[in-house]
Description:
The radius of gyration is 17 Å and the shape is globular. It has one domain. By secondary structure, the chain is mainly beta. Helices cover 0% and strands 62% of the residues. The protein is built from no helices and 15 strands. It has a 15-stranded mixed beta sheet, with no helix packed on it. Strand 10 (146-148) and strand 11 (155-170) form a beta hairpin.
Amino acid sequence: MKKTLFILILFFLTISNIGAHTSHYKGIKVINMDIYRNGKLIGYSNYFFSHGKDTLEVKNYTKFKVKLFNVIVFSVSSEALEKYKYDKLVSYNSNTFQNDKEKYVILKYDELNDNFIIDGSSFKGKASTDAIIGNWWNHKILKVDKQISPVSGSIKKQKVKFIGTESVNLNEKSYILDHYKLVSKNGDLPNDKKLDFDIWLNPVNNLIFKVSYNRAGKWEYMLKNFEIN
């Protein structure tokens, strides 16, 4: 068990397909998600939104621990900050401690060349602006063909398939959600680097309610609650 879990600037009236659709989250203040492994609550991933006139900042705090016989065998503690202007990503910074190993991402939008410059623990270089940060607050993750790792900065090609509409029980309530399957385009990747997620989206408010995947156990990110203005 080694690894887990894991747009720039556009003025005036032009909107391209690389936007984060941050306007869809205009009233959102907080999104809190619980993290489960094999049905046991082990941590959280919480998002905090600060809205300006033409800007949005999203802070994320993620923390969890996996124990076997009361011994911590895997742990993650992460902080991240996304900054958007006119609905476009202009910067992203994260710092993650995975067990005793530090990982990071420093991403900036290069307006002159219209691309991202990434300094990450797994990748250093340029990325096209049609990629999106791979997190669980932004439903645009289901509409793009590549994502940037929020932990290490690596770029992963993906494909998304709509499975169907399902009734899902969360926190003793039933919801009608859209079920998607997100997987890696490159099937030759090692198992610990492959994308293989089941994602349930509430089409009413564009919030991801649940994420599930298997990697040394069954992992689930479940929406605990959210706050709006």
